[in-house]
């Protein structure tokens, strides 16, 4: 059976095409961001231009066992995000725990999260969308969209937001993995320099120098990378002292 051609005269088809193009542009722009900080800042800036009704947005990411707002389009967003974290109640919290998307049409009449809704309403927030940022095996945090108007988000805005959140999660995990790779690379280089210092000072082999680092870090109850940094700093300070 031949494929059905897209009806380009259909307004709905035009809308879907525009959304697809906008999301593709967003994905490319986020991919170009150099680090996690710029990535999340790009997410909150782009989502308010992409999702109809979104006046403000915020991204919260897990740091250990705590959620922290890492990007927000305004101070108000950061305050309201932090209210969710403080009360451990709201669409963002449930989106993370129950793996769903939540929409609040009017904070004045919201009953699912009464404490949070009352506090958000006092700050002037009337509508909200909460999304989980996740990959197939990892929950990264949440994306929250806000409006000071009631009923600001319709079903289409909710779906577009879900698509955007999927792109955003991929961008976040890419930036996070890049940062972790750089950290690991820097750690390896620092440990290598520390081994070289010990090999020169103590006339040790590579393996003996590494074993000495490990045993010393265990006895002193400090991380091996912290011990390596200390050794390198000490060597650099000694070298500068001789040059002066």
From TrEMBL:
<protein>
    <submittedName>
        <fullName>GAF and ANTAR domain-containing protein</fullName>
    </submittedName>
</protein>
<dbReference type="InterPro" id="IPR029016">
    <property type="entry name" value="GAF-like_dom_sf"/>
</dbReference>
<dbReference type="GO" id="GO:0003723">
    <property type="term" value="F:RNA binding"/>
</dbReference>
<dbReference type="InterPro" id="IPR003018">
    <property type="entry name" value="GAF"/>
</dbReference>
<dbReference type="InterPro" id="IPR012074">
    <property type="entry name" value="GAF_ANTAR"/>
</dbReference>
<keyword id="KW-0418">Kinase</keyword>
<dbReference type="GO" id="GO:0016301">
    <property type="term" value="F:kinase activity"/>
</dbReference>
<dbReference type="InterPro" id="IPR005561">
    <property type="entry name" value="ANTAR"/>
</dbReference>
<keyword id="KW-0808">Transferase</keyword>
<feature type="domain" description="ANTAR">
    <location>
        <begin position="171"/>
        <end position="232"/>
    </location>
</feature>
<keyword id="KW-0804">Transcription</keyword>
<dbReference type="Pfam" id="PF03861">
    <property type="entry name" value="ANTAR"/>
</dbReference>
<dbReference type="InterPro" id="IPR036388">
    <property type="entry name" value="WH-like_DNA-bd_sf"/>
</dbReference>
<dbReference type="Pfam" id="PF13185">
    <property type="entry name" value="GAF_2"/>
</dbReference>
<keyword id="KW-0805">Transcription regulation</keyword>
<dbReference type="InterPro" id="IPR011006">
    <property type="entry name" value="CheY-like_superfamily"/>
</dbReference>
